[in-house]
Give the backbone structure.
Amino acid sequence: MKPPLTTVMHWVSQALFGHSMMAIRALDLGAATLAALGLVEIGRQLHRTPVFGIAAAIGFATLYYSYGYWEHAQTDGWAGFLLIPAVVLMLKAWACPNGRSRFLAMLGSGAILGVAFCFKYTIGGAGVLVFTPLAVNFLGKDEARFYFTDFLACFFGGAVALFVVMMTLATYGAWDDFIEIQRYVMSYVGYKGSDARSPLIGFQLPGMISVYLLVCVGVGLMLMVFDWIRNRRALVLVVAVLWIFSGWLSGAAQGKGFAYHFLPLVPAYAILIGFTVEYICHRTSGRAFSNAVAFSLLLGLYFPSQAATENMSGVRALRAANGDAVYVGNLVPFSDFDILETLEFAQTLKKHHGPDDTLFVWGFETMLYFLAETPPRYKFPYAWPFMVAHNDGRYDSDLLNRLKTVPPTHFVVQLQDATPWATGNPRSSEGQLQHFPELLAFLNENYSQIEEHSRFKLFQLKRDR
C-alpha cells in the first residue's frame, strides 16, 4: 500500500544495522538528525542569527520526539524531512541570478521533491513552494525573483526522479504489480473510523501533547506577520505559510486524521519556534544574557513536552539489564495491535517453526514473518486485499492456487485485528475467514490447530500431506 521508496528505506536499514526491529528506528534517528541540521542551514540561507537555526533544530527534535512508537519511521515523516533540503536548494537558487547555478539548484530541489513524492504521494502539494518569489514580490520588497525556468527546472528534476524509480521497478519486473496495487488501494482513501478527527485538527499536530509548543508556534506565526508589516520583508513568512499549508494538505488529503499523517508540518513549525526564540532574544541586551534567555526558553519548551517523558522512558530502558523488554513494555497497545502480544506469540511460533519451514499469515501482522525470519512467499503477505469493503474476489483464486501448489508449513489466523478505518469492514481476519469458504475449507482439510493465543491461532500442515 505504501509508495515504493518505503520498501527501499526498510531494506537500507537492514543492510546497515542488521536484522533487528530497531534497525529502522536507527535509520530514522539518522534521518531526523540530518533534518535538524538542515534547519540550521535554512536559517543561514535566510540570513538569520545562529539562535534561529539552533532553536529551530531543537524545536524540531522536541516536536518529532513528542510522538510515540507508532508515529516514528513513517513515510509521512521521511517525506516531510526531504522538504528541508528541497527548501535549502530553493533558497540558494533564489539568491542567484538567472543562470546555470540557479537552474541546477532548482533542478536538485525538484529531484528531492520527486523522491519525497515516492515516499508519500500527498506531499506533492509542496511543489507550490517554487512559486514563493511571486508571493514575496507581491507582499514585500525582498529581492527574490521568479523565473519560469525555475518552474521548468523543478518540474524536470522531479520528473527525472520519478523516471528513475519507475525504471527501477520495471527492471526488476515489479512495475505491473505496483500499478495494480495502486489502483486497488484507491478506495482506501474513502475509509475512515467513526471517531476520525477533523482535518483541521492537523494544525494542532495531534499527538504532540504540549500547549507550550502550540503557543510558541502560534506566537511565531504572529511575530512573522508583525515583522513583515514593519519591514516589508516577506520571504520567511511566505516560506513558512506555504510550508504549513502543504504539510497540512498532505495529512488532510488522506482523510484519516491519523497523527503521523501530519508529520510534514513538523519542520515548518520548527521554523516558527526558531523565529520566536530569536525574536525574544533580540529584545534582550548582552550576548551572554541573550544566550541564557534562549537556553531557558528552549528548556521551557522541552521539559513539559511529551518528548521529555518519552526520553526518560528511553533512559530507563538503556540503564536496565533487559533494556529491550523495558522499552517495549512501556508501549501502549492499540485495539488492533499489541506489540507485546505479537512478540509473545512469535516465541510460541519459533518453538514449532524450523529454518526450512514456510509461513502464511491470514491477518495484518506481517511482523511475524520478520520475527520468524521467514519471508512471505505467497504474493499476499497480509489479508488487507481480502478484507476491504470493495473486495470483489478478484484475487481469491490466485491466493488459493498458490497455497495449494506449495502449502505453507504453518498457517496463522489473526484475531482482534479489525481496522474499519482502513478496510471499511468491521470484521477481524478471523471473522472474514468465515466469508471466504474456499480458504476456510483449505485450512480445515489440510491443517491442525496446535496453538491458540489471545490474538493468534497457529495451524500446522498435517503430516500426511
Summary: The chain has 21 helices and four strands. The chain has a mean pLDDT of 92.
